[in-house]
Each structure stands twice: as C-alpha cells, then as structure tokens.
Specification:
alpha/beta, single chain, TIM Barrel
Amino acid sequence: MNRIETAFTHIKKEGKLAMMPFLVAGFPNFSQSLKILKVLSQHSDLLEIGFPYSDPLADGPVIQKADQVALKAGSTTSKVFELIKNLRLTTEIPITVLVYANLVYQRGIEKFYRDARNAGIDGVLIPDVPFEEISIFLKAAKKYNIDNIYLIATTTTPRRLNKITKVAQGYLYLTSVVGITGTQKDIPRKTLQYIKQIKRQTRLPIAVGFGISNLSQVKKLKINGADGVIIGSSLIKLIQKSNTNNPQTLINFLKNLNY
C-alpha cells in the first residue's frame, strides 16, 4: 500500500474521518508556509497543497486571494516543489497537490510528474482538465507511481462516475456544493445522499471539500459515509486573521473539527 491507502485504512480502523487541511504553497510567504505545513502535518491525516495560480477557476475569493499573495511573494512551480521536498524531510504524511493544467503544461507533463515524485508527492489533482482529456496525465502519473485524484460532484452522472472509478486512485474528491470553494453553513441534503450512491459504486475513500467549516458539517458527513474532509477556505481565513507564529491556534482549529 502507498501512503494514501495506508492512511485511509488506518483512519477507517479508528472509526473517524480523515482530517485533510488545504494550504496554498507560499501563503502568506514561503517561510511561514513551511512552518504552518509542518504544524498541520503533525495534527492531520493527509495534506493537500495548492500550486498558486493567477486564474484559479475552481476556487472562491478566499483561496484566490491566497494565490495572489503567494504569487506576489515570488512563488513559482519550482519553489513549490522545493517547499514540499523540505516538508517531506520532516513527515511521512500523505501529500496531494492541487494544480491547474497550465502549470503542468508549462513545465512539461513528464517533468512535472517526475518532479512531483522526487519531491515526495503522493497524489495530483488537476481541477480544470475534464475526464475525457486526462489520459496523458494519467500515463505520467502511473509511470511515477502518483495517484491521480478526481473531482466529482452531485451533477456527476452514474455513467460518468463509473468511468472515473475505473481509473481513479487514492480517493475521490467530492465537492459539497456545485461551483467554487468557500465556506458554507451546512451540507446540502443532495450531497449527503450522493455519498451513499458513490459508496455503492466504488470502494475508494470519499473526501468532501468546498465549504467545510464547522463540526456539525463534519458529523453529518461522517454519519452519511464520507471518509475524509478537506478544509481550505476556513483554514486560510484563520491564517489571515490570526498570528501564525502561534502553532496552538492551528492545532485548536483542527481539534475543533476532528470527529
């Protein structure tokens, strides 16, 4: 088993949800970003790290702003790989990355996945590539033993879901709402029902993201069969508002969502 499989197997035995915080690499700057990720890695089950991008179509205003801050601070694809490589020296936590296709094309698909492997990355999610066009990325991912993570939503048809689950690895990323990222007050009933539908079609773990910000949401997801929660916008809001030099702030945030 790879790191992602091992983590979800262990979490399932413990009967809890995987805590999966998301942070834009280089936000609020590179030194702080690395410090924050090190703290998160000690109190989470998996990490998702975003490559900053100038036009992040799947992300809401909070993450868009974090991308802009990171880019202004000098973020590049090479620097993100270096940051993750430094992080990997201190932890064996599974690391997946969210990256927009243009950044992969700019580096070269083969080189991007090779660099990802060398940095210690376990999974790659490219949100702006439709399933029908993913094959060239999937080929490189397989070559370098990296899981290709897929986004699905309640609008994903059973037929399309079936196609995705035949090639998906690691886990499925289910968006709690259709649209962009950002905090929400509750989980739509349709999303909770859809989790059960997915479970009938695949054994892959289901991680739910987009708008997760409170324990009530986490409990509902757990009861309805989700395997993990991805926390992005609410975490970045916390970092924007608080003193990130105090690790306890981050630890308490994660503890309050742990279920």
